[in-house]
């Protein structure tokens, strides 16, 4: 055991966060609030036959991170097929650039963004020709 099986993204505005992740990545959500005793929506991130995990959006329980604050936790990275198209969706959905697109030489394109809730996440497009 020890394999990552679930993630939680802390949010201030649940509907805004659901719209952001739904519009950008096509995630769908299941209301698990009664089970959790707080606003908590399970995030279905893809088909069960695909590699990856599901998670949840949960109501933030403390002040959000300050802009420019060092990372204090985990950054989730989503695999994408078309980096530039997903970046455009992120930006048009209210996200901002945290660390611009850069090559992981011989492996992929990587970059980091802030969602509408102030959380940092990454996107990763495999490309052995990246340089």
Automatic annotation (TrEMBL):
SUPFAM superfamilies for the chain: Glyoxalase/Bleomycin resistance protein/Dihydroxybiphenyl dioxygenase
Coiled coil: none
Residue ranges of domain VOC in the record: 3-126
Superkingdom per UniProt: Bacteria
Protein name: Glyoxalase
Organism (species): Cytobacillus solani
A Pfam entry, by short name: Ble-like_N
PROSITE patterns with a match to the protein in the record: VOC
Signal peptide: none
Transmembrane segments: none
């Amino acid at each position: 055991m020890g394999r990552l099986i679930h993630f939680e993204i802390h949010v201030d505005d649940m509907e805004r966060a659901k719209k952001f992740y739904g519009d950008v990545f096509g995630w769908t959500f299941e209301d698990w609030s009664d089970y959790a005793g707080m606003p908590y929506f399970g995030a279905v991130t893809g088909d069960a036959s695909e590699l990856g995990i599901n998670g949840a959006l949960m109501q933030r329980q403390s002040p959000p991170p300050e802009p420019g604050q060092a990372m204090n936790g985990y950054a989730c990275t989503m695999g994408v097929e078309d980096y530039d198209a997903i970046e455009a969706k992120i930006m048009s959905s209210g996200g901002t650039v945290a660390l611009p697109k850069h090559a992981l030489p011989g492996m992929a394109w990587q970059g980091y963004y802030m969602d509408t809730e102030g959380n940092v996440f990454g996107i990763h497009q495999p490309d052995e020709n990246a340089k």
